[in-house]
Amino acid sequence: xxxxxxxxxxxxxxxxxxxxxxxxxxxxxxxxxxxxxxxxxxxxxxxxxxxxxxxxxxxxxxxxxxxxxxxxxxxxxxxxxxxxxxxxxxxxxxxxxxxxxxxxxxxxxxxxxxxxxxxxxxxxxxxxxxxxxxxxxxxxxxxxxxxxxxxxxxxxxxxxxxxxxxxxxxxxxxxxxxxxxxxxxxxxxxxxxxxxxxxxxxxxxxxxxxxxxxxxxxxxxxxxxxxxxxxxxxxxxxxxxxxxxxxxxxxxxxxxxxxxxxxxxxxxxxxxxxxxxxxxxxxxxxx
Length: 287
Hints:
This protein has 287 residues and is an all-alpha fold. 60% of the residues lie in helices and 0% in strands. Helix 3 (29-56) packs antiparallel against helix 5.
């Protein structure tokens, strides 16, 4: 009895000093993995909002303590920029729904990483960071990928099914986000974009449906080009059929006139009108 009384304070001190390991030993792996997933989602959301806020307000920093949805909801350090405040509140509510993507259906390591990486491909995430310069967006995504890898390293895979069992009855397993809330259909309101962000969004490629990708009707420039081509063809035909033959005929006539005006020694000279005929006495004597 005395030994039990002595061991009880020691056990109490161990519980106070090392709550994490004792909780991990008593907590089920599925519950611990779900808690790890939610904590990682909060970390990803915090890093995303911190990057956008620090870029928008160069003289102030996003508080480090805002690592939960409720803490970020109460934050009001946006000054007179009500549009940016609304943008942050909308994304904070939308990003909280990411936690519903894991915990139902498959709960293995593959699904854990898949659902965390899907956050980086979500349309709300892409819209929230689209005002950042390209190099800062790339740096943010790479930093969040490292956070996902660290969380995957802490995942407890002791209850994960074998790969062959998972492949055998994979069709019978419901998707992890079957009961998740539908994504936000209305786009998050955008604050006043920065100049470089406006130029990037103007040059961003637009994905269109097959109907929209069909060739559109010809515009006035196409018809003007066709008209000029037809006019050039008619002008060339007129020159070949009319102008060049007429020019050639004139050149031939001019050549004949020059030939006639050239003196010919074999041809007798024409006498002027009223002149007497030349004497032919020498020719008659010769005869």
